[in-house]
């Protein structure tokens, strides 16, 4: 019949530090996965700007990462694809129609500044970084 079995493996009592280390590694790889240290590159969503009617006083979130399916605005893909990037929040000062950048290479975000006409953007593949 023998002795009753200990509730945990005897290894745990002999080498508890090994288990703690194992657990810590587990948590840090989980953190790396969800919070990457270096942000991903923006990708070219489209190669022409999108005209939108902005309403004075309203706040918009322009997609920085290029992965949104609701260009030129953010749909949360930057988070779900763990890019480490965030959208650009801006408030419209007046009601007007503007051309917002979708190639993500503009020097004047969120507005199109014509950079999409450059050879670099035109040669790039949609969905890839420059
Ligand atoms: Fe691109 Fe949010 S989906 S910034
Ligand atoms: Fe990006 Fe025009 S669409 S600069």
From TrEMBL:
Lineage: Eukaryota, Metazoa, Chordata, Craniata, Vertebrata
Entry cofactors: [2Fe-2S] cluster
Domain of life: Eukaryota
Protein name in the entry: CDGSH iron sulfur domain 3
One GO BP: protein maturation
Alphabetized InterPro entries for the sequence: CISD, FeS-contain_CDGSH-typ, MitoNEET_CISD
Any one GO MF annotation of this record: metal ion binding
Pfam families: zf-CDGSH (PF09360)
Keywords: 2Fe-2S, Iron, Iron-sulfur, Metal-binding
């Amino acid at each position: 019949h023998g002795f009753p079995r200990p509730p945990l493996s005897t290894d745990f009592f002999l080498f508890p530090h090994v288990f703690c280390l194992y657990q810590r590694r587990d948590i840090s790889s989980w953190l790396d996965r969800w919070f990457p240290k270096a942000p991903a590159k923006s990708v070219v969503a489209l190669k022409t700007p999108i005209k939108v009617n902005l309403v004075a006083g309203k706040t918009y979130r322009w997609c920085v990462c290029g992965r949104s399916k609701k260009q030129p605005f953010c749909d949360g893909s930057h988070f779900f694809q763990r890019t480490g990037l965030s959208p650009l929040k801006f408030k419209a000062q007046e009601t007007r129609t503007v051309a917002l950048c979708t190639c993500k290479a503009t020097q004047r975000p969120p507005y199109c500044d014509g950079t999409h006409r450059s050879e670099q953007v035109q040669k790039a593949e949609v969905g890839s970084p420059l």
